[in-house]
Specification:
Order of helices and strands: EEEEEE
CATH architecture: Beta Barrel
CATH superfamily: Nucleic acid-binding proteins
Number of domains: 1
Radius of gyration: 15 Å
Number of helices: 0
Length: about 110
């Protein structure tokens, strides 16, 4: 079941398509503990695309889920936190250690 989440991530790969972009990113879940997440961001209709590249640090907000031990995120909102420099790339330990925000919602019926 997907949950809503916000993460600060380091983009490691990016594959642009016509209506969406996808790839892999790293986030720091605990001190010196890094996780890989697979992400997909659909471009908003009628709005400019957010241009970012591997090596950039972004804030992702969207639906988060884990299936067979693999983490996935469908990004609803993305914002650039830091722009990577190919001559001086970010190191993984420069990703802020942000406590992940995960929001669960439940529906009950009588």
């Amino acid at each position: 079941m997907p949950s809503h989440s916000s993460l600060i991530v380091l983009i490691t790969t990016k594959d642009d398509r016509t209506s969406f972009t996808q790839g892999l990113a790293k986030y720091q879940s605990d001190q010196n503990v890094f996780q890989i997440i697979r992400w997909k961001h659909f471009y908003p209709f009628g709005k400019p695309r957010l241009e970012f590249f591997p090596g950039d640090i972004l804030l992702f907000t969207g639906k988060f889920m884990i299936e067979d031990g693999i983490e996935y995120m469908t990004v609803a909102y993305a914002n650039i936190v830091g722009i990577g420099d190919p001559e001086d790339p970010f190191k993984a330990d420069e990703i802020p250690n942000l406590e992940a925000r995960v929001y669960n919602s439940f529906t009950t019926r009588e």
